[in-house]
Amino acid sequence: MNATHWGTISNFAIYSAMVFITIAFFSHAIEVAFSVKNVEAKALVSSTGEVIDPSDAKSETEFDFARTDKWGRLGTVMLTLGTIALFGGITARGISAGRVPWGNMYEFSITGSFAFSVAYLFALKRFAIRWLGLPVSIAVLITLGTAITLLYRPSAPLVPALKSTWLVVHVSAAILSGGVFLLANCVAGLYLLLDKYDRMSLPRPRWAVKLPELEELDQLSYRLVAFVFPLWTFAIIAGAIWAESAWGHYWSWDPKETWALITWIAYAAYLHARVTVGWKGRRAAWLCLFAGSTFLFNYVYINVWGTGRHTYSGL
Length: 315
Hints:
This protein is mainly alpha-helical. It has eight helices and four strands. The chain has helices at 3-33, 69-97, 105-126, 133-151, 166-199, 214-247, 255-277, 281-304; strands at residues 36-39, 44-45, 51-52, 60-63. A two-stranded antiparallel ribbon has the order 1-4. Strands 2-3 form a two-stranded antiparallel sheet.
């Protein structure tokens, strides 16, 4: 098959991934929504022996997640199939272009979505975080939809500066790091949302009753960042080595380099605050979200509207 055929296969696989992940989104939404049931109060006998009419009592809300477990498992299966389809689409895109598929924003976005999904599925094996399936599927669908509608560019050769073995080393480390960072940010954002209900002495909303306690969310966010931070450090070092090979100097304060360093400093501050200062809970979650916002700013704004040697959006 020629490059055009492989390009068509890639597009079909990406669209198929969106279908699978859309089904995953609806499955997880049903899992949450239909786990709620109202139970009529039963007749009660008071201490005086008087029978209380159940019609005078309010109905009670209970949550039966056993009856929606199949929907949750279906969501996980569909998200897994979508991730596999994404991998096929990325691979076919690389074959079509005759290179690694990380040369523009479209390719980086579909690969980033894949890394985000893989990070979630691997974490799901270790932690009971199926409750993240709904926000993960939403985030992946938004990213893929944006990639297909706004960022898509036909396969094309790499610009000269990208023709290096370091492309595989540096960009793969950056993509994997970004996927795990964003997963940690989802957890931190959820922590802040549920913490607001606790501080206001309000019951959790129905969709959030099955979610873990705040302490568990706090620990999970920290573990994800601590796990992937060394990889992000390696990505920056690899990028500096690549820059020296391509342009003759390790660091030029290019906007993308600068914001990558800002992201590193922000996450380093987060880890330092947790380990040394003892920050936990709300303050740590806000700091985690701030660090994640610097990564997203680098990914979106610098790639699309920024100028410099690292601007390869293709837009």
